[in-house]
Amino acid sequence: MNHQTLEFRSDNCGSAAPEIIEALVRANQGSAVGYGADALTSDLNATLSDVFESKLRVFPIPTGTGANALALAACGTPFGAVYCSPEAHINTSECNAVGFFGGGLKVSPIDGIDGKVCPVSLEKNLTVAGFGQAHKSQPVALNLVQATDLGAVYSTEEISQLSALAHARKLSVHMDGARFANALAHLGCSPAEMTWKAGVDILSLGVTKNGGLLSDAIVVFNPDIADKIDFHLRRGGMIWSKMRFASAQILAYVENDLWLRLARQSNAAAQQLAQGINRIPAARLIAPVQANELFVEMSVTALDRLANQGVLFYRRGPELARFVCRWDTTQEEVKQLLALIETGSHA
Amino acid sequence: MNHQTLEFRSDNCGSAAPEIIEALVRANQGSAVGYGADALTSDLNATLSDVFESKLRVFPIPTGTGANALALAACGTPFGAVYCSPEAHINTSECNAVGFFGGGLKVSPIDGIDGKVCPVSLEKNLTVAGFGQAHKSQPVALNLVQATDLGAVYSTEEISQLSALAHARKLSVHMDGARFANALAHLGCSPAEMTWKAGVDILSLGVTKNGGLLSDAIVVFNPDIADKIDFHLRRGGMIWSKMRFASAQILAYVENDLWLRLARQSNAAAQQLAQGINRIPAARLIAPVQANELFVEMSVTALDRLANQGVLFYRRGPELARFVCRWDTTQEEVKQLLALIETGSHA
Amino acid sequence: MNHQTLEFRSDNCGSAAPEIIEALVRANQGSAVGYGADALTSDLNATLSDVFESKLRVFPIPTGTGANALALAACGTPFGAVYCSPEAHINTSECNAVGFFGGGLKVSPIDGIDGKVCPVSLEKNLTVAGFGQAHKSQPVALNLVQATDLGAVYSTEEISQLSALAHARKLSVHMDGARFANALAHLGCSPAEMTWKAGVDILSLGVTKNGGLLSDAIVVFNPDIADKIDFHLRRGGMIWSKMRFASAQILAYVENDLWLRLARQSNAAAQQLAQGINRIPAARLIAPVQANELFVEMSVTALDRLANQGVLFYRRGPELARFVCRWDTTQEEVKQLLALIETGSHA
Amino acid sequence: MNHQTLEFRSDNCGSAAPEIIEALVRANQGSAVGYGADALTSDLNATLSDVFESKLRVFPIPTGTGANALALAACGTPFGAVYCSPEAHINTSECNAVGFFGGGLKVSPIDGIDGKVCPVSLEKNLTVAGFGQAHKSQPVALNLVQATDLGAVYSTEEISQLSALAHARKLSVHMDGARFANALAHLGCSPAEMTWKAGVDILSLGVTKNGGLLSDAIVVFNPDIADKIDFHLRRGGMIWSKMRFASAQILAYVENDLWLRLARQSNAAAQQLAQGINRIPAARLIAPVQANELFVEMSVTALDRLANQGVLFYRRGPELARFVCRWDTTQEEVKQLLALIETGSHA
């Protein structure tokens, strides 16, 4: 990175954690059978079962988009509909992947705030969904993004309430955990409490954005769903033959609480940034900062100025900026950004 | 690997080349924009364009199955048919991936020997294909596996002849190069001569089996096909956000002729093994050994005995074994295997 | 129908026009080549080209859902998105057909009133659509339902304005004309003026709801789109072998202005009903009545009472009824319905 | 038809039976609820349950291609493979429809004679299919064409044997009965004996080729498969809103043994033609004539001459002609054809 720029574009612009790189290097020993039948992948299943306090199935997968689309396809039929928030990544940023993996499976956004699905909206939509009517897309899954695409975090109570509504109508509950560890660090609960104990059936476990490099994972709590995932993955060209190198990354990610440590660092940077912004009248946070993303309203002029000064960030509208903190974002970088925002606001 | 076993299952059971691991480690510096817009991916495009003596496009992709299916989907319409040999990996081992990525795209095996497509069969099939008739799957691509799934290698003349037949009917030519470097090392020609100069439009460039770990690549020579591949990849959940870590692997793979050096090692081991087998009357090679795979007919008893003695290999029939040599297969391992085969044949 | 019931459920509950039945019977003469190469299908293409004042292609197809989904699939890539009104039939009532035929093609509802797409919403959505960005579904078509799913009719100016916005971004314009003739009769313009002269590229021509029985049609004005429709239809199991019996229906439908005559009858019945309802304070039309459908807000009690009295209609909400007039709905039936509504409103 | 031509192209070039046309006309009475909830469709289910001596489900569907593809999609997962004969219509003439409806479902032709699947080939393929291995397409259905695409008929014993092999591995058995009545008339058994009593789970019941016009049907014996067919049909745009007009055709088709009477007529014409051909040395039948199709080897010159003399037929190769007899093919037409063949053979 050019020393004259400040990197706040995305957590996937950041570097990988050394522990994960080292694990990958260590995995390069001797020969191992391919396609996930190796010892490291077996360890991964055992370790995550411990971490989540449940006998579960883990499937390393190259990307979060793949994880989401394939997990949702595994939840239901091609006649189905998946409810999500309007801001959900599957609705805005994954180029028809759900429809592709799901054979036409429909993404149905429903109202909510802060990137969450609102339980009242969910119930209302379920009531008029037309279950059993062939001309209606049949609701099959609820997609919850944790942390949300606006940087907020569902409480375990909120997850439980939404899951209960979904399960009452036989929908599966999918958690898009692209920033799972950030949400977990924020809530301070156990992985089990934030997932299966709250009704989550299947999880896209994000690793890449929080210090990983080339693998995320699908974690399946509900054994009914796990059955066909191997076939979905294989048909989708998603099973690495040298799987051990993917499993090694995810093992290192959860061992010794690395994932939490990394997430706490990016969350802390985001808090530092949020507190600074709250003191600047010309900038306004549009959603609670509970993970590592901030959505900030500022004038067009102020945002243009920031961009010209070398701040790297994405605009979500002419007056809306997203700033993302990484596990390796420094206090100094945050201070510099705040100084530039503040200066700009006086200009 | 247990020291009592001999690993001849697959080249994807082997380790990664240190040069590739080191390149991956080196890539972990600073921040970089995601999804392939980074500097290493840009370098990769430039470097492969040099290596192949043509301005081409490279798309790193997690697996060879993904590369094949997506490349073929990019070649044509969902009403299409892809011709291949009966033994082709897309026909035998990729769980409907071509049909999935291609929206129902059909795989049509046609006759040949040694895992090759026969030009006479191809022409015969093209003649009766029913171009323009809506009830017929429309031929859109020819799939050539180089080296073939029986361990043979197409000459450049063979590729040119088949490509000419295909192009005369407006089919695209796809090369499944899961063992591309092995074939290249065998022929001793240039990468250009084995691909676009012989009519290949799009290539699945295998890296994993020859010392790579987590990335293969699609290489597109025909710019008409390249256009929509980004969308195919994104929809398929195939674009890593931290792409630099994939591009770094492929860069290291081709730099300083590493790919050829590794391939020459596995090819040499295969030659040593083939020469040994040719001296054993009870074992018979069913196809020319021109790359790093051997297909050997032996009695059921002899094969059972080998398996019991700790030789790791796959059976393709009760009396048909496949042995695969890796870049790190040693002369000693080959000798041990030959000794066991020979002993068994006297039993 | 039971003489004690009043049929206002749907125009597809009605009978077929005798002229269409007679044409079908007449078509049963001698032999004819299958799959659309027959003389009647050729006549149909010529006749509709005259009626629409343009050399067009006609493809008879069993259902309107098939026509819509296949027409939209023919407009674009599987990475695409189709804009429509939230009430559009493709969004509410066709069970993922667009996603199925389009290989994951996304349906994206955007705001509007009376079941129309609002040009301001359209422009706003196009502006932020992310053309060329692989993580975004690429806008490929605009779907206009004429008459709309709330019973209103786009003016030709409205169609032209929306088409211009769409074409400026290279989207195709698809008209869902399930009630095309009703809209045409309302506007009093020519078929050409309501379609290609206003920018429509491809039309689902509804026949069934307006006196047809077993065939609707796709009408293609833009020859670029027409090319692959035969293959889409064949792959979709949509080409009748005895096509002449379908083409005969559609020919009879447009000959001697039958379609307009039938549509005028149902439109007139709807007007009679609307005028009556406007005089009843307890009932409220929620959208302009410009074709043959009425959407009426009444109390739950009043609607329950109507249903108990033998009025057949569908509820679109606890307090929202849809009444549909058919070409053979009589003035007497309308009077009886009005009397029941009025009586109920005093109860 | 031109009086100077002789029509032997296809049974779908023929006219519709008057009884079916009349039933369709009679169905045009009063109003009826749409999409298959009407009284005639209910009658159809009851009547076919009687005819087949089993409580079954009937789904009228516009075409046989749709029936086949959708029935097979309903039998299994998108990771599946369907075994069929190489000549099977789904393999040769339906433009990827199985792959389309089945989300990539693979068609796997296996050896046999006379257009039949050979039980030995089936068992051999099942043995090496790789059940449970994610890289292998999982066998899910067996497709039997009755009568076959070469004009032969499976005996009930043959069907039972093949079904038993399929069921032993949990494959469903699908019968493509495009010429079901012709086979039934040939065997002289009951509809039950030729289907569910012999292990058939789901049937494409052809009507169009044997005197129907616009509807075939899917008949489901296995209730596990029936469940989702409504959704498949709706998503595929295959459910007519005015379903009564389709159901009326199929009801008339089976009532009073009309289907058998019509089939016996075309079978008899085919027998007359076969016996004549057997007396002509220059013409050779390549398969038993057991239904209404004949496949005849003759010289290129002789076939060219026939075509020039106004005989309408299709060539399946330079020296292979298919002649199809219709329910309304007359003895005189057969005599004229035989005379032309005989004359030509002396030329």
Q: How does this structure look, described?
A:
- Four copies of one chain form a homotetramer.
- Chain A has 347 residues and is α/β, with parallel strands linked by helices.
- Chain A folds into two domains: 6-14 and 258-346, Aspartate Aminotransferase, domain 1 (Alpha-Beta Complex); 18-257, Aspartate Aminotransferase, domain 2.
- Chain A is built from 15 helices and 13 strands.
- In chain A, the strands form three sheets. Chain A has a seven-stranded mixed β-sheet with strand order 2-8-7-6-5-3-4, with helices on both faces. Chain A has a four-stranded antiparallel β-sheet with strand order 9-10-13-12, with helices on one face.
- In chain A, a hairpin with a 7-residue loop joins β9 (284-285) and β10 (293-297).
- In chain A, α8 crosses α13 and α14 crosses α15.
- The first copy, chain A, is globular, with a radius of gyration of 20 Å.
Which labels suit this protein?
homotetramer, 347 residues, alpha/beta, Aspartate Aminotransferase, domain 1, Aspartate Aminotransferase, domain 2, 13 strands, 16% strand
